[in-house]
Design brief:
Layout (H helix, E strand, L loop, with lengths): L1 E5 L3 H10 L4 E5 L2 E5 L3 H5 L2 H17 L1 H19 L1 H10 L9 E2 L1
Parallel strand pairs: 1-3, 1-4
Antiparallel strand pairs: 2-3
Helix pairs in contact: 3-4, 3-5, 4-5
The chain binds zinc ion (ZN).
Zinc ion binds next to helix 3 and helix 5.
Length: about 100
């Protein structure tokens, strides 16, 4: 599976402002949008990579449009931190996984 990494993403920059964060990774489909962090620094952080890959797999499972709708709905219901999609991604941070089938482009 090919996953694109986009540095200096405007979308991630907007999210960073909203979340009051200095570093943000944001997944849309099979693209990881980064703001405030380089591709190499991001990839060196195994837990963070596992978190964002969990979001990529969520997009794979639900499809692009449905995933965005479900994510926004859950965020409205539970907030960002308690959004079940975020809880699932945080749980994935701790679990070593075989990602050898993934190529970052
Ligand atoms: Zn997340």
């Amino acid at each position: 599976m090919k996953i694109k990494i986009k540095e200096n993403s405007v979308l991630a920059r907007i999210a960073a402002k909203k979340l009051k964060a200095t570093q943000v990774a944001l997944v849309l489909g099979r693209t990881i949008h980064l703001w405030g962090v380089t591709r190499s620094s991001f990839l060196a952080n195994d837990g963070w990579v596992r978190h964002e890959l969990a979001h990529v797999f969520q997009f794979q499972r639900h499809g692009f449009i449905k995933m965005i709708c479900l994510y926004l709905l859950q965020s409205l219901k539970h907030g960002y931190y308690n959004n079940p999609f975020e809880q699932q991604a945080r749980a994935a941070e701790q679990v070593p996984a075989d990602h050898s089938f993934i190529v970052f482009i």
